[in-house]
Amino acid sequence: MKRSKVFASAATLALVLSACGSGDEPEDSRMIMVFAAASLQSAFTEIGEQFDADNPGTTVEFSFAGSSDLVTQLTQGAQADAFASADAQNMDKASQAGLLDGEPVNFASNTLTIAVAPGNPKRITSFRDLTTPGLAVVVCAPQVPCGSAAQRVEEAAGVDITPVSEETSVSDVLNKVTTGQADAGLVYVTDAAGAGNKVTAVPFPESASAVNTYPIAALKSSQHQELARKFIDAVMSQGGQTTLAAAGFAKP
């Protein structure tokens, strides 16, 4: 069983703050909290399990959500030991707020694909097909990395998509497709791959115009900065990079 705790959205901020301020954590605790973009959930959970095995007595837990939501939580006082963003823009916001302990390092990159129902019943074959009248398309909100990437692709392709909804994380977009609430959604190639036979991925060449680079950094609020840096080292290690590559991430 996967042991890492997952906090899925900004609505969990109160819980995170409560847990951090409860005083219940033993002084010698070796638990670290990593705030990470939703698209990292599968890969980081695996890296975290290996990290725990390599560091007996240590537990790494995660809060997975849209990068913009995570930055909001951090600036409002939520405490974490490290932050992994799905783009440089949200990491820059964290830096400008004085949250980072040291310079972030880039560890992966990702591109968009179109997720559709298995077998592609709507016969979507191109990015421009997402403008077909009556087609229910879901994207990420503009402030979310996958949403800003979608906007860059639209501009590069000269295409204007009218989505039926804009979600706060890429996992929410994927869920709308897998549950039949949308005909198509713009997600990362890693999310489509992780969904297995629940979706069919439709690649499109314009995605190359919006490659998102993922940075990670330790946070000043960390009570365990040495462990936070060890986790970052684990992400950058050969094992961590192999896990990310297996999930579909490219090099930064």
TrEMBL record:
<keyword id="KW-0479">Metal-binding</keyword>
<dbReference type="Pfam" id="PF13531">
    <property type="entry name" value="SBP_bac_11"/>
</dbReference>
<protein>
    <submittedName>
        <fullName>Molybdate ABC transporter substrate-binding protein</fullName>
    </submittedName>
</protein>
<dbReference type="InterPro" id="IPR050682">
    <property type="entry name" value="ModA/WtpA"/>
</dbReference>
<dbReference type="InterPro" id="IPR005950">
    <property type="entry name" value="ModA"/>
</dbReference>
<comment type="similarity">
    <text>Belongs to the bacterial solute-binding protein ModA family.</text>
</comment>
<keyword id="KW-0732">Signal</keyword>
